[in-house]
Automatic annotation (TrEMBL):
<dbReference type="InterPro" id="IPR003764">
    <property type="entry name" value="GlcNAc_6-P_deAcase"/>
</dbReference>
<feature type="binding site">
    <location>
        <position position="257"/>
    </location>
    <ligand>
        <name>substrate</name>
    </ligand>
</feature>
<dbReference type="InterPro" id="IPR032466">
    <property type="entry name" value="Metal_Hydrolase"/>
</dbReference>
<dbReference type="GO" id="GO:0008448">
    <property type="term" value="F:N-acetylglucosamine-6-phosphate deacetylase activity"/>
</dbReference>
<dbReference type="InterPro" id="IPR011059">
    <property type="entry name" value="Metal-dep_hydrolase_composite"/>
</dbReference>
<feature type="binding site">
    <location>
        <position position="222"/>
    </location>
    <ligand>
        <name>Zn(2+)</name>
    </ligand>
</feature>
<feature type="binding site">
    <location>
        <position position="142"/>
    </location>
    <ligand>
        <name>substrate</name>
    </ligand>
</feature>
<keyword id="KW-0119">Carbohydrate metabolism</keyword>
<dbReference type="GO" id="GO:0046872">
    <property type="term" value="F:metal ion binding"/>
</dbReference>
<feature type="binding site">
    <location>
        <position position="201"/>
    </location>
    <ligand>
        <name>Zn(2+)</name>
    </ligand>
</feature>
<keyword id="KW-0378">Hydrolase</keyword>
<protein>
    <submittedName>
        <fullName>N-acetylglucosamine-6-phosphate deacetylase</fullName>
    </submittedName>
</protein>
<feature type="binding site">
    <location>
        <begin position="225"/>
        <end position="226"/>
    </location>
    <ligand>
        <name>substrate</name>
    </ligand>
</feature>
<dbReference type="InterPro" id="IPR006680">
    <property type="entry name" value="Amidohydro-rel"/>
</dbReference>
<comment type="similarity">
    <text>Belongs to the metallo-dependent hydrolases superfamily. NagA family.</text>
</comment>
<feature type="active site" description="Proton donor/acceptor">
    <location>
        <position position="280"/>
    </location>
</feature>
<dbReference type="Pfam" id="PF01979">
    <property type="entry name" value="Amidohydro_1"/>
</dbReference>
Length: 390
């Protein structure tokens, strides 16, 4: 028998924190054992500090870039892999490279590149997120108006065929769209093909959004951002997101995109399992860069913000480990719930919670090792260790 037995650290399984040893064999967790277990013959024993915490690896469904790479600029397999490597040092062991509104050719290239990257064992790429181009023009944010459009028949045909390309690798296709720019029938068509549909960048009414939910929409992208504010007589898409049962809202917890009071309001409305952390990260993550280019314009990194010259937010300057810490301090959740928001809940949203989001026998050995400050010291992806300092 070969493998590694991790011993000494506390273990958050995705459900509760326990004292246990974790046996990893190949890509998976083979067993969760009583603490102090004897390593089977041929299994390496790795002792961890008792003040460390082992948790399920973080899962980020919205990652535009990292390590100096922007997926829109280089929609290639190599770019998707580089972005995943950059985020791994911050505890993200699985992510969706995100391609925002752009040319049709770029969108198609990005999807196929992510499918190729998903086939690489241990890459950390588990699908693709296409954010746009079917958005409400006045709610597009930093998305390029020249490429915002209605869905054509060729668009729908292409999107319908994508899940088959990803399915063989247990990977997913997420599409963010405006419910006022597509019909419920089109949403149902995409969902029937296996596309996960989320609402975003939209001026849809409350009724329009609920019709989209009835048609199969199950999530909302960066809640409150690029949406009209809540109003008493027209709650709009944000109100529908807060009240629609069995939907999950991605939320950016950086203290910039959403006020802490609104974070707590969302938490109270959605309850456990209703919010998942996302970074909406851009190329500066993992670098000391002070700016980058998007659509030919300079995006400035200032005081925890990524902004255009006119102050429009262009993604977020945050990593997932910081998002977890912020959730505790800004939302008032405990450590376990913050960790679930970064792992179990996104796994459920992606229908991958039978293999990711927990430390459990048979689940993939995607783990993060955290110190007492919830700083990442290293990760395992598909059973392979990497020190965060590398």
């Amino acid at each position: 028998m070969t493998g590694t037995l991790l011993t000494g650290a506390r273990v958050f399984t995705g459900t509760r924190t326990i004292n246990a040893d974790i046996l990893i064999q190949g890509e998976r967790v083979a067993a969760v054992l009583p603490p102090g277990s004897t390593a089977p013959a041929g299994v390496a024993l790795r002792r961890l500090s008792p003040d460390m915490l082992l948790a399920p690896g973080f899962i980020d469904t919205q990652v535009n870039g990292g390590g100096g790479v922007l997926f829109n600029d280089t929609p290639t397999r190599e770019a998707a892999l580089a972005i995943a490597r950059a985020h791994r040092r911050f505890g993200t062991t699985a992510l969706l490279p995100t391609f925002i509104t752009d040319r049709v050719e770029g969108m198609q290239a990005a999807a196929l590149a992510a499918a190729s990257a998903s086939a690489v064992i241990g890459s950390g790429v588990i699908g693709v997120h296409l954010e746009g181009p079917f958005l409400t023009p006045e709610r597009r944010g930093v998305h390029n108006l020249d490429h915002v459009r209605q869905a054509s028949e060729s668009d729908l045909d292409f999107l319908e065929g994508l899940p088959d390309r990803f399915g063989a690798h247990d990977a997913r296709v997420l599409l963010s769209l405006a419910p006022d720019r597509v019909t419920p029938a089109e949403i149902t068509r995409l969902v029937a093909a296996g596309v996960i549909v989320a609402g975003a960048h939209s001026a849809a009414s409350f009724a329009q959004t609920l019709a989209a939910v009835d048609a199969g929409l199950t999530g909302f992208t960066h809640l409150f951002n690029a949406m009209p504010p809540l109003a008493n007589r027209e709650p709009g898409i944000a109100g529908a997101a807060l009240t629609a049962r069995d939907t999950v809202c991605g939320i950016i917890v950086d203290g910039v995109h959403v006020h802490p009071a609104m974070l707590r309001l969302a938490l109270a409305a959605k309850g456990p399992g209703g919010l998942m952390l996302v970074t909406d990260a851009m190329p500066p993550t993992g670098t000391d860069a002070t700016n980058f280019q998007l659509y030919g314009q300079t995006i400035h990194r200032r005081d925890g913000r990524l902004v255009t010259d006119d102050g429009t937010l262009a993604g977020a300057d945050i990593d997932m480990a910081q998002a977890v810490r912020n959730a505790i301090h800004l939302m008032g959740v405990d450590v376990e719930e913050a960790l679930r928001m970064a792992s179990l809940y996104p796994a459920r949203f992606l229908h991958l919670d039978d293999r990711l989001g927990r430390i459990q026998a048979g689940w993939r050995a995607d783990l993060v090792l955290l110190d007492q400050t919830l700083t990442v010291t290293g990760t395992w992806v598909a059973g392979q260790w990497r020190d965060a300092a590398e």
